[in-house]
Design goal:
The chain is of the alpha/beta class. It has two domains: 142 residues, no CATH class; 226 residues, Rossmann fold (3-Layer(aba) Sandwich). 48% of the residues lie in helices and 17% in strands. It has a six-stranded mixed β-sheet, with helices on both faces. β11, α12 and β12 form a beta-alpha-beta unit. The model has no long low-confidence stretch (mean pLDDT 89).
Length: 422
C-alpha cells in the first residue's frame, strides 16, 4: 500500500493517479481485515496485542470502514464493466463505446492457423511495462472518461472523500510492529551466538545504573556475522556519580562504549530487553549526542566552532533527566583549548545533574568532581599495541596511549637504544 502511495507521487496524469489510489485502498482494506481475522484466533497474553485486536475488531465493523469497502467494491465493479473501442488511422485515434462489434483478431488467427507448420517465429512485440502512461494512453483514457462520465465522476468523488482513509492507529501499529518483530529476530540471532538479553529494572528517579555483560548491538551484529567473538563490558554508577569519562588508546572501544550506553537507555525506554545479563537503567526525558562531524560549508562555521554551537544547543535544552553522549568532543582544537572548553562543559553537565558518557583524550576531565567516574579502554599488559576492547573503572593515566604511539613511531626505549647504538 505504501509503495502504491509513493508511486502516485511520481505519476503525471490524474486519472491514472486515481486508479493507483483505488488499488492502494483495496490493499489496505484486505490487509486490515486479514490482520483482524488472524489476531482473532490465537490466545494472546500480550496486553498490547489484545488491545490492538479489540481495536481492529471495532474498526473493521465500523460504519466508516464498512462503507469504505462497500463503495470501493461497487466502484471497481462499475469500472470493470466498461467496454470501449479505439480506432487507429495513422496518427489519429478515435475512442467510442463498444457496441458488440466483431473481434476480427480471432477470425484472423483461426484463418492462418491452418498454414502453421511446426514451431514458428513470433512477431509479437513486448511493450515496456512502465508505471507512467504516455500521452497517447492518457488521451485515450480521457476519451473513455468522457464516454462514461458517471462512473469516472463517482471515482473522483470517492478519491476526494476518502483521501485520509488511512487510520492513524493502524498506521502507527504497522510501523512499530515491524520494528519490534525485527528486534526479536535480531535478539534470537545474537542469542544463538551466546550473547544475553534481559528486561531491565527501570526508574524515572534513581540514577544508580548498572549493567553486566553488555555490548553494542551494531558491532555485535557485525562480529557475529563474521563469526568473531564479541567482548562484553560491565559498568555501574552509584550516587553521587553521574558521568563516565572514558579515555584510552584509539580503536580501543571507547566510542563503542559511548554508543552502547545510549542504546541501553533508549531500548529500555521502549520497553525492550537490553543487551546484558542484568540491567538497572534510568528512564530519560531525552538522549542527546555530540559526535564529531565533517565540516559543512553551508553553515559557514569551522569544525571547532560548529562543535561549540552544537553543545551550546544541547546544554540549553537538556535537563536533569536527560542522558548526554559526547564522543571525542573538541578534538579538533589544541589540548589547552580542549581542556578549558571541556572543563566548562563538564561543570555545566555536573551542575545540571544529567547522566552521560564523555569520551575524551583530556585525562584531567576524569577527576574533575565526585560525580565523574574515570573509565579506560585497556590494552594487553605485555603489548600496549594490542587492544582488549574491555572498558574498566580505572584512573586515567594516558600511559597505554603513549606507549602505543611510541611503538607505532619507533620511539620506545628499546628502539631508541638500538638507533643510538648505530
Amino acid at each position: 500500500m505504501r509503495g502504491h502511495l509513493e508511486q502516485i507521487e511520481k505519476l503525471h496524469y490524474q486519472l491514472q493517479k486515481q486508479s493507483w489510489f483505488l488499488d492502494a485502498v483495496e490493499i489496505y482494506c484486505e490487509a486490515v481485515r486479514g490482520l483482524a481475522d488472524d489476531l482473532a484466533e490465537p490466545e494472546l497474553t500480550s496486553r498490547g496485542l489484545r488491545r490492538i485486536r479489540e481495536y481492529l475488531a471495532a474498526y473493521t465493523t465500523s460504519q466508516k470502514f464498512v462503507s469504505l469497502v462497500a463503495e470501493l467494491r461497487a466502484l471497481k465493479q462499475a469500472l470493470t464493466g466498461i467496454r470501449y473501442r479505439a480506432r487507429i488511422q495513422g496518427p489519429r485515434v478515435t475512442v467510442s463505446r463498444y457496441q458488440g462489434e466483431r473481434d476480427y483478431s480471432v477470425e484472423i488467427l483461426e484463418t492462418f492457423a491452418r498454414f502453421q507448420q511446426g514451431a514458428v517465429r513470433s512477431y509479437l512485440v513486448s511493450l515496456p511495462d512502465e508505471p507512467n502512461m504516455n500521452h497517447v494512453e492518457a488521451r485515450i483514457l480521457d476519451g473513455v472518461a468522457e464516454l462514461y462520465p458517471e462512473v469516472f465522476a463517482a471515482r473522483t468523488d470517492y478519491c476526494v472523500r476518502h483521501d485520509a482513509y488511512l487510520d492513524p492507529t493502524v498506521s502507527v501499529f504497522d510501523r512499530e510492529v515491524q520494528f519490534y518483530v525485527a528486534y526479536l529476530e535480531l535478539m534470537q540471532r545474537l542469542r544463538k551466538a551466546g550473547l544475553s538479553f534481559s528486561y531491565p529494572q527501570v526508574s524515572a528517579r534513581s540514577k544508580e545504573v548498572a549493567v553486566t555483560e553488555t555490548f553494542d548491538l551494531a558491532l555485535a551484529t557485525k562480529l557475529v556475522g563474521e563469526q568473531r567473538p564479541v567482548v562484553c563490558n560491565d559498568f555501574y554508577l552509584k550516587d553521587p556519580e553521574r558521568m563516565f569519562v572514558v579515555s584510552g588508546p584509539n580503536n580501543g572501544g571507547k566510542t563503542t562504549f559511548a554508543r552502547m550506553f545510549g542504546q541501553l537507555h533508549y531500548l529500555a525506554s521502549l520497553g525492550l530487553p537490553v543487551p546484558g545479563t542484568d540491567a538497572r537503567l534510568f528512564l530519560p526525558d531525552r538522549i542527546y549526542t555530540h559526535f564529531e562531524r565533517e565540516e559543512d560549508i553551508a553553515t559557514l562555521r569551522g569544525k571547532f566552532e560548529d562543535e561549540l554551537f552544537r553543545i551550546h544547543e544541547i546544554l540549553e535544552q537538556a535537563s536533569a533527566d536527560s542522558v548526554l553522549i559526547m564522543n571525542e568532543s573538541f578534538g579538533s582544537t589544541t589540548l589547552r583549548d580542549a581542556l578549558v572548553v571541556g572543563t566548562e562543559v563538564m561543570r555545566q553537565i555536573i551542575e545540571l545533574g544529567a547522566l552521560g558518557v564523555f569520551v575524551t583524550f583530556v585525562d584531567e576531565l576524569a577527576s574533575l568532581d565526585d560525580s565523574t567516574v574515570s573509565m579506560m579502554s585497556t590494552v594487553m599488559p605485555d603489548d600496549p599495541a594490542i587492544r582488549t576492547f574491555t572498558v574498566v573503572r580505572k584512573p586515567a593515566d594516558g600511559l597505554a596511549y603513549a606507549a602505543a604511539i611510541a611503538e607505532k613511531y619507533g620511539l620506545t626505549y628499546a628502539a631508541l637504544r638500538q638507533r643510538i647504538a648505530r
